[in-house]
Design a protein that fits this description.
This protein is about 25% helix and about 30% strand. By secondary structure, the protein is an alpha+beta fold.
Length: about 290
């Protein structure tokens, strides 16, 4: 990255708020791509902002949670000028049935200048999954399908077929023997065991890759200055549909241009999508109604 992004920052050293080893993923990306040296801020309990096992529900959006982590980081390390935090969300794909979707966000905030910028990666490259097990063998089958123990699994109790961590919760499982024991205890106590992939970064290599991509997006945006005010983050804000069908010319829902914008001065610029100027007839409402 050029020095444009760093000129907007009050330091080239940043703190990272994490309990789950994200510094090993985000640190090299920010170091190599943006010249930012990253260190982990000690003494912040990030579970206070939400847990995947549902003991603590996340209040607000992923960005709200990331900002709360940043504020806690600044409180714990008052001499630090720049703070970074990451937050992930997982659930069903909004358009494709049975396909899970992961959404990773990495936030950078400069306390001295008030500058804030995010990087993001959204995609189906996630192993997020869960299953209700009435017996231990079902629990073990699910765990094996999810790549356990390389990818973590946690076991919760059940109340009305819904996960109930207040009744039973074990997220310390390292091998099949421990998982089988936890599932048996949950079944004996609550009638079933709720198993879910452990989405904490240090227990989920698949998620680590998504966090890395979000950090790379942050670096990309740091290197994308506004043509007017030079503030980093001049990027896509909304799309313009209407790419014409290659057979009949009818406007389709395919993107024909993007509106890029600056969060600082408000400048906007419309740029056509590079490449093929026509849409496939398969996306045309006339050719393929």
């Amino acid at each position: 990255m050029s020095g444009a992004g760093l000129r907007w920052l009050s330091d080239d050293r940043a703190g990272l708020v994490t309990m789950h080893g994200k510094e090993a993923v985000i640190g090299p990306v920010l170091g190599e791509g943006a010249g930012i040296s990253l260190f982990r801020v000690a003494g912040v309990d990030t579970d206070a902002f939400g847990t995947f096992t549902r003991e603590v529900e996340r209040p607000g959006s992923a960005l709200d949670a990331a900002r709360a982590k940043v504020r806690a980081g600044f409180a714990a390390s008052p001499e630090t000028r720049i703070m970074v935090a990451s937050e992930g969300s997982f659930g069903p794909h909004p358009a494709i049935p049975l396909l899970p979707l992961g959404d990773e966000l990495v936030l950078l905030v400069d306390r001295e200048t008030g500058f804030e910028l995010t990087g993001r990666h959204v995609g189906p490259e996630t192993n997020f999954a869960h299953r209700l097990a009435l017996d231990v063998e079902t629990a073990l089958d699910f765990a094996r399908q999810c790549g356990f123990p390389g990818h973590g699994i946690f076991v919760l109790g059940v109340r009305g077929e819904a996960p109930a961590p207040d009744l039973f919760c074990d997220k310390t499982l390292e091998d099949e023997k421990a998982l089988a024991s936890a599932a048996a205890r949950a079944i004996a106590l609550t009638g079933a065991a709720f198993l879910e992939t452990d989405m904490r970064a240090h227990r989920n290599p698949t998620r680590q890759d998504a966090i890395r991509r979000a950090a790379q997006d942050l670096v990309r945006r740091l290197g994308s200055p506004c043509p007017d005010c030079t503030r980093p983050g001049f990027d896509r804000r909304r799309r313009i549909p209407g790419l014409p069908c290659s057979d009949c010319g009818t406007p389709t829902d395919m993107t024909r241009a993007w509106i890029l914008g600056c969060e600082g001065c408000g400048l906007e610029d419309t740029r056509p999508v590079p490449g093929e100027p026509w849409a496939d007839p398969g996306a045309c409402p006339s050719c393929n109604p």
